[in-house]
Design a protein that fits this description.
It contains eight helices and seven strands. It has 240 residues and is an alpha/beta fold. The chain has a single domain, classed as Rossmann fold. A seven-stranded mixed sheet has the order 3-2-1-4-5-7-6, sandwiched between helices. Helix 2 links the parallel strand 2 and strand 3. It starts with 15 loop residues before the first strand and ends in a 7-residue tail after the last strand.
Length: 240
């Protein structure tokens, strides 16, 4: 399930791409499929172990070229172990809402991006997230949970203040908003026949990508999309 639209965010051979807050690697795998060098960073070592295993399996199947070095790195978003201007592309998908010091993470994102490089940032959309918070404290009041609800305009302003130029945005995952409202209503740690059925629907949709739901999401995303995706470019040095 990709949140970033790679038609809007071109990635290919010769690009070094940071997947910050990579989790279980959904964007990392797509980066590798497109022939770019992927660097997946997260604090959850167990998730990254699974990512490395999947990357190895993809290489064995011939789906990707085997990376020359480890793809994953356990690291803090506030103190990235990379030189200035190290990455041509940076993706920060669904991570900033977890960080008390989101501006510190934004500064690191800007620091490691090359002049002329591209940045994609995704966070939960404001009003679907407000519904989740209203329905369940357990949704966000957990260790490592969401610490804020963003207005897209405020997040854009923070990234622009950090030195990036806004290039566009869109919403994603309309089908996921009702699922999370349902989970929050029944209890995020509980499963019911309805939550299991909806989860099966989401898995089926992700695995088969039928035309009906693809078109449906495109229609519903502007209204119901659970995530907002913002795209930026770091200015060339001679334009700053």
């Amino acid at each position: 399930m990709l949140t970033v639209d790679f038609d809007r965010f071109p990635v290919g051979p010769g690009h070094r791409v940071l997947d910050l807050g990579a989790g279980q690697g959904r964007h990392t795998y797509e980066i590798l499929r497109r022939g770019a060098e992927a660097v997946a960073v997260d604090l959850a070592a167990e998730d990254l172990e699974q990512v490395e295993a999947m990357v190895g399996a993809m290489a064995l199947e011939g789906e990707i070229v085997a990376p020359a070095a480890a793809v994953t790195h356990v690291a803090d978003a506030l103190d990235l172990p990379f030189a200035d201007r190290h990455f041509d592309r940076v993706i920060a998908a669904e991570i900033l809402e977890h960080l008390p010091d989101d501006r510190g993470a934004i500064a690191e994102i800007v620091r490691v991006t090359v002049p002329g490089g591209l940045v994609a940032v995704t966070v939960p959309r404001r009003w679907p997230e407000q519904v989740c918070w209203a329905l369940s404290d357990a949704y966000h009041e957990v260790e490592g949970g969401h610490v804020r609800i963003y207005r897209a305009s405020e997040l854009r302003a923070s990234l622009e203040a950090g030195g990036l130029v806004f290039t566009g945005s869109h919403h994603a995952h309309a089908l996921h908003s009702p699922y999370w409202w349902l989970k929050c209503a029944v209890g995020v740690d509980r499963e019911t026949a309805l939550t299991r059925a909806y989860h099966r629907l989401l898995v089926w949709d992700m695995m088969t990508r039928p035309t009906l739901t693809r078109v449906g999401e495109r229609v519903l995303n502007p209204v119901l999309g659970k995530s907002v995706v913002l795209y930026f470019r770091k200015p060339d040095e001679d334009t700053r």
